[in-house]
Inverse folding.
């Protein structure tokens, strides 16, 4: 235990001649400011403290009165240090018999040398009466100079010194050990002082330094445990408060899916009373396979819709984030976020994502206004729509607006084809009968296509759907019926498909990664969502919107952009599009010290030259692609010939020509 501390400062000897040499050296130093050489048992730290004592003008050989902390300040200090004082007395009780039968006493001061306790056996230390008349006296280096505890506080090391090492003459017959008490950060919060008045050199107790160190370390350990316990309680209270005030449902589970913490919103969604929340979460859900797979693999699951056994009227979108043991070898549990998706059953009429309309899509750029007008026109007719565009441009926003424009009371079912594990995607889309496979729900389960009956099926990231399932989906779209996994009876379904992708499907078709017949089924109408760099007029409009909503969410006063920040936002190419802009504004509001957002408040990636270069390169590639298409049409004479020459569909060439020529097709 002693070895874990820093090397002690020791200026001590049982030889009376050594004591006398140190006393003579100190007096000569006080008179001349020079320490004679050599002086045995006199570390450099002691000499340095003597110099400080002399520079403070301390009257080393006169009687004096120590300054005392004002009573109101001392009361506050005692309140702050009460836990340490209580721990100190608990330990000192162990030594009470030894202390009462010797001229030793143990005391405690704070990190500034303020005495927090009187000597335990004050009545026997008559020589100290005029020095320590009450706790609250300030025994710092400016008032008492070199002592064991001022050395310990200055150097954060245990100290053991003989009488004349003390700067004050009145302490020259005392032997003192001191050791700092530290918190979990290694910061000094107090000091243990073990003193023997008028020490008899021929009959001194041994191991006083070890005694002092052991007490200080014991106190330090207890302080750390106490503070850790308080911190854990505070964290638990904070977590519960955060959980309870969150608008979404949050649950933490262990590795066996038992519920550890659950907030009020999650209880409401699960319709779970105190009895039910003391069980496994899996017993409250229609399908727990995603949770167990996430716990087993350690992979997160995002935006996965799962039904609730006790609340069939809603579906809930789950984010599952596993956490690990210290060695990252296996999952110890998971944090689960639950977002209510009432629009699946057309029940969410007020607010939420189910209320999204074209008017809610923020824009003022001409390209976006034209797109919204076209989307409204096609949304009024029950045709399949393919949304094209880079990640983060708002394809799902348009999908929901299209759905709500056509038939807002019908179900809207969203599927992210990229996030569903390949082993589960078929049962997720088409459902399954009971007993179809190990882990299947007892009564089977509807697929998401069945849930979309009468409404809209949104297939996000359709380009990432496995090729073998594309054929099954195509058959469902053609025959308007679905057969569950493990079943034989077709179930009739009728729904509109809105699909979305950021992949070049025409290229995937050429490379046999996407079925051409499925592409034609999905793309009755194509709508291409422009990137943010193609709608620069909307950047500041969107930024202001995200800043305002973030401030409202954090209950902050309104924030605004300074002109330099606005210029940076306009010039940046936004490879992550609207989603990146939103995250950047949330970050800026979070870190900004005042309510004016400066360039220094923006994320670092906005300033990376590489990001700008990537955007520039991307624009160069698009420009080259456009030039190739134009030249090919001119050389071959018409769109059909150009499409055959380029190895793409004629619809792709038409779409590209309309983009290049502002909606006009060259003939």
């Amino acid at each position: 235990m002693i070895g874990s501390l820093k090397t002690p400062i020791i200026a001590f000897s049982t030889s009376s001649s050594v004591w006398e040499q140190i006393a003579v050296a100190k007096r000569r130093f006080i008179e001349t400011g020079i320490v004679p050489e050599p002086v045995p048992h006199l570390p450099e730290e002691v000499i340095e403290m003597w110099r400080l004592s002399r520079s403070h003008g301390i009257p080393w050989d006169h009687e004096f009165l120590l300054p005392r902390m004002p009573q109101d300040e001392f009361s506050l200090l005692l309140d702050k240090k009460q836990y340490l004082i209580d721990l100190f007395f608990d330990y000192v009780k162990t030594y009470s018999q030894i202390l009462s039968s010797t001229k030793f006493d143990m005391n405690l001061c704070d990190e500034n040398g303020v005495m927090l306790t009187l000597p335990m056996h004050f009545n026997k230390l008559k020589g100290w009466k005029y020095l320590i008349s009450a706790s609250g006296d300030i025994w710092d280096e400016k008032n008492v100079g070199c002592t064991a505890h001022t050395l310990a506080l200055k150097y954060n090391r245990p100290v053991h010194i003989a009488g004349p090492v003390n700067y004050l003459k009145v302490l020259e017959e005392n032997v003192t050990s001191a050791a700092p008490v530290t918190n979990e950060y290694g910061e000094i919060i107090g000091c243990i002082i073990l003193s023997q008045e008028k020490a008899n050199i021929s009959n001194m107790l041994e191991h006083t330094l070890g005694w002092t160190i052991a007490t200080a370390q014991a106190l330090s350990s207890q302080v750390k445990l106490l503070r850790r316990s308080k911190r854990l309680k505070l964290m638990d209270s904070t977590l519960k408060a955060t959980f309870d005030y969150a608008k979404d449902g949050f649950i933490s589970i262990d590795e066996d899916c038992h519920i550890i913490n659950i907030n009020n919103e999650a209880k409401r969604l699960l319709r779970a009373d105190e009895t039910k929340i003391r069980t496994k979460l899996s017993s409250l859900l229609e399908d727990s396979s995603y949770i167990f797979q996430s716990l087993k693999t350690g992979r997160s699951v995002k935006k996965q819709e799962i039904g609730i056994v006790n609340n069939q009227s809603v579906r809930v979108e789950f984010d599952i984030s596993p956490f690990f043991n210290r060695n990252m070898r296996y999952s110890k549990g998971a944090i689960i976020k639950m977002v209510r998706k009432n629009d699946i059953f057309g029940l969410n009429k007020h607010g939420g994502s189910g209320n999204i309309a074209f008017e809610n899509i923020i824009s003022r750029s001409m390209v976006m206004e034209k797109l919204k007008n076209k989307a409204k026109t096609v949304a009024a007719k029950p045709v399949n729509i393919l949304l094209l565009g880079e990640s983060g441009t708002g394809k799902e926003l348009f999908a929901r607006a299209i759905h709500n424009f056509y038939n807002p009371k019908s179900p809207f079912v969203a599927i992210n084809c990229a996030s569903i594990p390949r082993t589960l995607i078929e049962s997720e889309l088409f459902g399954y009968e009971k007993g179809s496979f190990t882990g299947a729900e007892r009564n089977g389960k509807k697929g998401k296509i069945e849930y979309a009956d009468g409404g809209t099926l949104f297939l996000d990231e359709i380009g990432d759907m496995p090729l073998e399932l594309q054929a099954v989906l195509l058959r469902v779209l053609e025959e308007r019926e679905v057969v569950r996994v493990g079943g034989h009876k077709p179930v009739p379904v009728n729904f509109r498909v809105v699909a979305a992708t950021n992949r070049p499907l025409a290229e995937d078709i050429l490379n046999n990664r996407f079925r051409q017949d499925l592409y034609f089924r999905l793309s009755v109408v194509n709508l291409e969502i422009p990137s943010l760099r193609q709608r620069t007029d909307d950047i500041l409009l969107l930024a202001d919107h995200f800043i305002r909503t973030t401030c409202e969410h954090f209950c902050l006063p309104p924030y605004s952009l300074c002109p330099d920040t606005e210029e940076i936002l306009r010039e940046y190419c936004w490879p992550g599009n609207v989603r990146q802009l939103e995250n950047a504004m949330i970050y800026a509001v979070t870190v900004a010290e005042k309510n004016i957002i400066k360039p220094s408040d923006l994320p670092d990636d906005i300033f990376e030259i590489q990001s700008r270069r990537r955007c520039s390169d991307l624009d160069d590639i698009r420009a080259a692609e456009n030039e190739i298409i134009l030249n090919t049409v001119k050389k071959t004479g018409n769109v059909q010939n150009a499409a055959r020459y380029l190895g793409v569909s004629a619809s792709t060439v038409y779409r590209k020509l309309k983009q290049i020529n502002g909606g006009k097709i060259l003939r």
User: Anything to note?
Assistant: The longest helix spans residues 208-245. The mean pLDDT is 80.
